[in-house]
Design goal:
alpha+beta
Length: 216
Protein backbone atom coordinates (compact mmCIF):
# COMPACT_ATOMS: atom_id res chain seq x y z
CA UNK A 1 0.00 0.00 0.00
CA UNK A 2 2.84 2.38 0.86
CA UNK A 3 4.59 1.53 -2.41
CA UNK A 4 1.38 2.12 -4.37
CA UNK A 5 1.12 5.62 -2.79
CA UNK A 6 4.81 6.18 -3.58
CA UNK A 7 4.32 5.33 -7.24
CA UNK A 8 1.08 7.29 -7.49
CA UNK A 9 2.59 10.51 -6.12
CA UNK A 10 5.69 10.27 -8.29
CA UNK A 11 3.49 9.72 -11.34
CA UNK A 12 1.14 12.66 -10.72
CA UNK A 13 3.59 15.27 -9.40
CA UNK A 14 6.60 17.12 -10.77
CA UNK A 15 8.07 17.10 -7.29
CA UNK A 16 9.57 13.62 -6.97
CA UNK A 17 9.85 11.56 -3.79
CA UNK A 18 13.12 9.64 -3.78
CA UNK A 19 12.45 6.94 -1.17
CA UNK A 20 9.76 5.24 0.88
CA UNK A 21 11.37 6.79 3.96
CA UNK A 22 10.81 10.27 2.54
CA UNK A 23 7.20 9.37 1.78
CA UNK A 24 6.71 8.17 5.36
CA UNK A 25 7.94 11.52 6.72
CA UNK A 26 5.60 13.39 4.38
CA UNK A 27 2.63 11.29 5.41
CA UNK A 28 3.37 11.88 9.11
CA UNK A 29 3.43 15.64 8.57
CA UNK A 30 0.15 15.52 6.64
CA UNK A 31 -1.40 13.38 9.38
CA UNK A 32 -0.46 15.92 12.08
CA UNK A 33 -1.98 18.75 10.04
CA UNK A 34 -5.19 16.79 9.54
CA UNK A 35 -5.40 16.00 13.26
CA UNK A 36 -5.05 19.70 14.10
CA UNK A 37 -7.83 20.59 11.65
CA UNK A 38 -10.04 17.81 12.99
CA UNK A 39 -9.54 19.04 16.55
CA UNK A 40 -10.36 22.60 15.51
CA UNK A 41 -13.59 21.50 13.85
CA UNK A 42 -14.48 19.33 16.85
CA UNK A 43 -14.07 22.28 19.22
CA UNK A 44 -16.14 24.49 16.95
CA UNK A 45 -18.95 21.95 16.93
CA UNK A 46 -19.13 21.73 20.72
CA UNK A 47 -22.53 23.14 21.87
CA UNK A 48 -21.20 26.21 23.72
CA UNK A 49 -18.72 27.14 21.01
CA UNK A 50 -21.34 26.63 18.33
CA UNK A 51 -23.73 28.98 20.15
CA UNK A 52 -21.02 31.63 20.57
CA UNK A 53 -20.09 31.44 16.89
CA UNK A 54 -23.76 31.62 15.92
CA UNK A 55 -24.32 34.67 18.16
CA UNK A 56 -21.32 36.48 16.66
CA UNK A 57 -22.55 35.73 13.16
CA UNK A 58 -26.04 36.96 14.10
CA UNK A 59 -24.58 40.23 15.45
CA UNK A 60 -22.68 40.80 12.20
CA UNK A 61 -25.80 40.12 10.14
CA UNK A 62 -27.84 42.55 12.28
CA UNK A 63 -25.11 45.21 12.02
CA UNK A 64 -24.89 44.88 8.26
CA UNK A 65 -28.67 44.95 7.94
CA UNK A 66 -28.86 48.47 9.41
CA UNK A 67 -26.21 49.77 7.04
CA UNK A 68 -28.66 50.92 4.41
CA UNK A 69 -27.45 53.29 1.67
CA UNK A 70 -29.22 56.11 3.52
CA UNK A 71 -27.44 55.26 6.79
CA UNK A 72 -24.07 55.06 5.05
CA UNK A 73 -24.67 58.45 3.41
CA UNK A 74 -25.59 59.92 6.81
CA UNK A 75 -22.33 58.64 8.31
CA UNK A 76 -20.31 60.02 5.39
CA UNK A 77 -22.03 63.40 5.68
CA UNK A 78 -21.39 63.50 9.44
CA UNK A 79 -17.71 62.64 8.96
CA UNK A 80 -17.36 65.21 6.18
CA UNK A 81 -18.88 67.93 8.37
CA UNK A 82 -16.56 67.00 11.24
CA UNK A 83 -13.51 67.20 8.97
CA UNK A 84 -14.60 70.57 7.58
CA UNK A 85 -15.08 72.01 11.07
CA UNK A 86 -11.66 70.67 12.12
CA UNK A 87 -10.06 72.29 9.07
CA UNK A 88 -11.68 75.66 9.77
CA UNK A 89 -10.59 75.58 13.42
CA UNK A 90 -7.04 74.83 12.34
CA UNK A 91 -7.21 77.59 9.71
CA UNK A 92 -8.48 80.13 12.26
CA UNK A 93 -5.61 79.21 14.57
CA UNK A 94 -3.14 79.81 11.73
CA UNK A 95 -4.78 83.19 11.02
CA UNK A 96 -4.40 84.14 14.69
CA UNK A 97 -0.73 83.13 14.68
CA UNK A 98 0.21 84.59 11.27
CA UNK A 99 2.65 87.48 11.34
CA UNK A 100 4.60 87.65 8.08
CA UNK A 101 3.45 88.67 4.62
CA UNK A 102 4.30 85.21 3.26
CA UNK A 103 2.20 83.51 5.94
CA UNK A 104 -0.82 85.67 5.10
CA UNK A 105 -0.46 85.15 1.34
CA UNK A 106 -0.11 81.37 1.81
CA UNK A 107 -3.25 81.31 3.97
CA UNK A 108 -5.18 83.34 1.40
CA UNK A 109 -4.31 80.91 -1.40
CA UNK A 110 -4.98 77.86 0.80
CA UNK A 111 -8.42 79.21 1.66
CA UNK A 112 -9.14 79.96 -2.00
CA UNK A 113 -8.38 76.38 -2.98
CA UNK A 114 -10.40 75.02 -0.06
CA UNK A 115 -13.44 77.02 -1.15
CA UNK A 116 -13.39 75.17 -4.47
CA UNK A 117 -14.27 71.95 -2.64
CA UNK A 118 -18.02 71.24 -2.33
CA UNK A 119 -19.03 71.96 1.27
CA UNK A 120 -22.08 71.56 3.46
CA UNK A 121 -23.38 73.52 6.46
CA UNK A 122 -20.13 75.40 7.15
CA UNK A 123 -20.58 78.45 4.92
CA UNK A 124 -21.07 80.86 7.84
CA UNK A 125 -18.04 79.49 9.68
CA UNK A 126 -16.00 79.68 6.47
CA UNK A 127 -16.98 83.31 5.84
CA UNK A 128 -16.04 84.21 9.41
CA UNK A 129 -12.57 82.69 9.04
CA UNK A 130 -12.13 84.38 5.66
CA UNK A 131 -13.29 87.76 7.04
CA UNK A 132 -10.86 87.50 9.95
CA UNK A 133 -8.05 86.63 7.53
CA UNK A 134 -8.87 89.49 5.14
CA UNK A 135 -9.24 92.05 7.95
CA UNK A 136 -5.99 91.04 9.64
CA UNK A 137 -4.11 90.95 6.32
CA UNK A 138 -5.34 94.47 5.59
CA UNK A 139 -4.28 95.71 9.04
CA UNK A 140 -0.85 94.10 8.53
CA UNK A 141 -0.50 95.91 5.17
CA UNK A 142 -0.56 92.71 3.14
CA UNK A 143 -3.84 93.47 1.33
CA UNK A 144 -4.92 96.88 0.11
CA UNK A 145 -7.76 98.37 2.17
CA UNK A 146 -10.51 99.21 -0.31
CA UNK A 147 -13.07 100.66 2.10
CA UNK A 148 -13.11 102.05 5.64
CA UNK A 149 -16.22 99.97 6.22
CA UNK A 150 -14.93 96.57 7.40
CA UNK A 151 -17.92 94.66 6.01
CA UNK A 152 -17.82 96.39 2.64
CA UNK A 153 -14.05 96.03 2.45
CA UNK A 154 -14.39 92.30 3.10
CA UNK A 155 -17.12 91.98 0.48
CA UNK A 156 -14.96 93.67 -2.17
CA UNK A 157 -11.94 91.48 -1.45
CA UNK A 158 -13.93 88.26 -0.96
CA UNK A 159 -15.43 88.65 -4.43
CA UNK A 160 -11.95 89.12 -5.84
CA UNK A 161 -10.72 85.99 -4.04
CA UNK A 162 -13.66 84.05 -5.51
CA UNK A 163 -12.61 84.95 -9.05
CA UNK A 164 -10.98 82.46 -11.40
CA UNK A 165 -7.74 84.47 -11.52
CA UNK A 166 -4.91 82.14 -10.55
CA UNK A 167 -2.15 84.63 -9.74
CA UNK A 168 -3.74 87.45 -7.74
CA UNK A 169 -0.41 89.28 -7.60
CA UNK A 170 -0.71 89.95 -11.34
CA UNK A 171 -4.28 91.24 -11.09
CA UNK A 172 -5.46 94.76 -10.43
CA UNK A 173 -8.84 96.36 -9.75
CA UNK A 174 -10.54 99.58 -10.81
CA UNK A 175 -13.62 101.19 -9.22
CA UNK A 176 -15.89 103.09 -11.60
CA UNK A 177 -19.11 105.07 -11.28
CA UNK A 178 -21.94 104.12 -13.62
CA UNK A 179 -25.62 105.00 -13.51
CA UNK A 180 -25.50 105.82 -9.82
CA UNK A 181 -23.76 102.51 -9.04
CA UNK A 182 -20.28 101.53 -7.93
CA UNK A 183 -18.68 99.06 -10.34
CA UNK A 184 -15.74 96.88 -9.31
CA UNK A 185 -13.76 95.66 -12.31
CA UNK A 186 -11.04 93.06 -11.84
CA UNK A 187 -8.37 92.85 -14.54
CA UNK A 188 -5.83 90.24 -15.52
CA UNK A 189 -3.44 91.08 -18.38
CA UNK A 190 -5.54 94.20 -19.06
CA UNK A 191 -8.62 92.05 -19.66
CA UNK A 192 -11.68 92.31 -17.42
CA UNK A 193 -12.06 88.96 -15.67
CA UNK A 194 -14.74 90.04 -13.21
CA UNK A 195 -17.18 92.94 -12.98
CA UNK A 196 -19.52 93.41 -10.00
CA UNK A 197 -22.10 96.12 -9.44
CA UNK A 198 -22.78 97.56 -5.97
CA UNK A 199 -24.94 100.31 -4.58
CA UNK A 200 -23.04 103.56 -4.97
CA UNK A 201 -20.64 104.32 -2.12
CA UNK A 202 -18.32 107.18 -1.26
CA UNK A 203 -16.79 105.09 1.50
CA UNK A 204 -13.78 103.95 -0.51
CA UNK A 205 -10.16 104.11 0.64
CA UNK A 206 -8.99 104.30 -2.98
CA UNK A 207 -9.85 106.61 -5.86
CA UNK A 208 -12.38 105.87 -8.54
CA UNK A 209 -10.72 105.15 -11.90
CA UNK A 210 -7.33 104.26 -10.42
CA UNK A 211 -5.60 100.91 -10.94
CA UNK A 212 -5.15 99.19 -7.60
CA UNK A 213 -3.02 96.11 -6.82
CA UNK A 214 -4.65 93.89 -4.24
CA UNK A 215 -1.36 92.86 -2.63
CA UNK A 216 0.75 95.69 -1.25
Amino acid sequence: MLREEFEKRNKNSDKKIFSLSDLTDILMIERRKLMIKLKKYSIAMEPMNYVKAKDKLTEKVEFLSILTPEKINENIASLSLSLQNSFLKAMQKKVDEAGTKKEFIDLIYHLRYYKMIPMSHVHDALRLVEKNLVTKACNQKVLTILSNDINLNYEFIANLLDSKIIDLDEAFIVFKKKNGKTILNVYEDNNIELSIEYDYTDDLSVKYGKKIKIFI
